[in-house]
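[#protein-structures] MJ: dropping Mannose-6-phosphate isomerase here for a structure pass
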Amino acid sequence: MPLFLQPILKTKLWGGQRLSEFGYQLDNDTTGECWCVSAHPNGTS
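AK: finished. structure tokens for Mannose-6-phosphate isomerase:
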């Protein structure tokens, strides 16, 4: 059975649009982190 994950995009003061170069759909100009595979309580992918 395949496991489908959704990346968690985190807004940061120093963020920008650079993650769009890796194919991520960014909603704003302050995206600074992408949690692609995560089981963290603050952002499970």
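MJ: nice. Residues 8-44 form one domain.
AK: one more thing. The radius of gyration is 11 Å.
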